[in-house]
Amino acid sequence: MENPFSDNVNENEVVEGGSDRIAEMIFDAAGPELHADADEEAPNETAARFYNLVRDADEPLWDGCENHTRLSAVLQLMNIKSEFNMSVNCFDRLLVAIKSMLPKDEKLPESFYRAKKMVNELGLNYVKIDACPNHCMLYYKDNEDKASCDICGHSRFKPRRELLTKGKAVPFSTLRYFPVMQRLQQMFMSSKTAIHMTWHADRMHRDEDIISHPADGEAWKHFDRTHPTFSYEPRNVRVALCTDGFNPFAGAGAPYSVWPVFVTPYNLPPSMCMKQNNIFLSLVIPGPRNPGKNLDVYLRPLIDELKMLWNDGVVTYDASRKQNFTMKVGLLWTISDFPAYGMLSGWSTHGRLACPYCMEDTKAFRLQNSRKPCWFDCHRRFLPSNHPFRKQKDAFRRNTYERDEPAERLTGMQILSRLQELAQGPSSQQFPGFGHDHNWVKVSIFFELPYWSTLLIRHNLDVMHVEKNVFDNLFNTVMNIKGKTKDTARGREDLKVICKRPLLELMNISEIIMMPKATYVLEQRQTRDVYQWLKLLKFPDGYVSNISRCVKLDEQRIYGMKSHDCHVFMQRLVSLAFRDMLDKPIWGAISELSKFFRALCAFQVRSNDMLSLEDDIVVTICKLEKIFPPSFFDSMEHLLIHLPYEARVGGPVQFRWMYPYER
Questions:
Q1: Are 471 and 484 in contact (CB under 8 A)?
Q2: 19-28 and 70-83 are packed helices; what angle lies between their axes, rounded to 10 degrees?
């Protein structure tokens, strides 16, 4: 492992977060006593070093100083250095100047090297691993000394300038890896967090049917039953992994994509679990291009660490019990938006086979005129066998009854078996039958974890993005927003081919193509009333952002609505906005959709309620299929039928969606 305080460390990356927050974390860790009685175990070497840092944190910068401790002063100076891109020489000279202004008994480090060495004990050290800029491989372990990529042949280092013959070679791309082991250990070393790390095992269960935490879900319980040795020790940690790409230069408009990877421990109670302090940055995958299906290349160091923490564990000091124990870690699932879902799972989320639950047993098809995949009339098969919708041959696809049963939900072992068969085929960049028989593009690196194939949920569908996409499709279509509505001329041409709805088909009047107004589209006067109503809306502080700022009355448009704005609009406002403007059956179906999201996003859910919701959402989608054209139904509308299952098995969506990470 590379020394994080060697000369090749970038000065801008020493401190993660603000200095005040880190100092507070260390002060909180001073809870456990630093001595052991006869019946107590002494802290192990790692814990002892950490407690030494706690003592340094409590030591004033000089005798009588009330504003700063030694550690808080160092962290604040390091943060300033990082923020203003200060050189090492400048920082050293600044330290000399500050030390000359302080009393003689001051305890400020004399150089940047000493300051970094002190901060290293925080567990914020990281490893820099060079990578191929084409996302082919890491220069890691056996490949550490190579000078070019084994796959594409790209050089590892940038060419040296003729005048600069000395100095270290600069790599084209570098992965930053923050090990999670030390940070998980520190959660047990602090008395304020250690006592909560066994909350899931110590709490009293009042109602077995209520699910308020992933520990109440069937996925957690199944994991415990399958791996009793792991679950026997309640201090073993269960974590989730999340990743998403963002552009750090969005203001400048430069195309760039950086992918941070976060790890979140689930042992904590609901009030602490998803707090920012308990979400750990693990990897910073460099840009400027999206890693795509090669995301596994960058996950290699983290997967190796997770395998070590599962197989061997690490000796950790529990400050609440004053004991040393072997802590092991298990990864429960991943959290991501739908495109990243394909990058993590290996099942491509594009095309006709995008659904990772239905897989190849889907009834999705491609629209000839709109030229996109469509999930229209793919949901009657999920209805009970005697449901009247199954027999309505002209309400959905023309002259079509539904007799098929729902698609089988495959287990992890079945998926792994299929992948092993595909991997044994001809060596090529794409598995045979891709896009027709399956949508697999790779064998995910997560299957290297010994327990991964036994999990009930391996990758979560992100309710945040699904809800936003469904709301956008619904609102833009009902409000007939040009360029965004799903009710287009090409969509009407597809409707004529697929459905029996003559009143909605395009009309040719004097060689002019006319599109009849649909009952699910508001008139211009009604849309103006909706925008004026939205412009006057007022909300309590902290409930939602000011939606009225997004409304442009002169353009009859809404701009800049964030995901949470769509979340509130979908669950609280959409039924009110369209209540007196749409026909009752249409408004009723939209209201049922709004009610579905409210029930799904509750802080506490019941298993029986989620089972009922699985049945209700299928009926609701079928009602919408009888109203809207086939072009309205993309993969987001289809994924709704799988969300109640994940809530019942995995727990409330607040622990499995992207809001905490994107914020």
A1: no
A2: 150
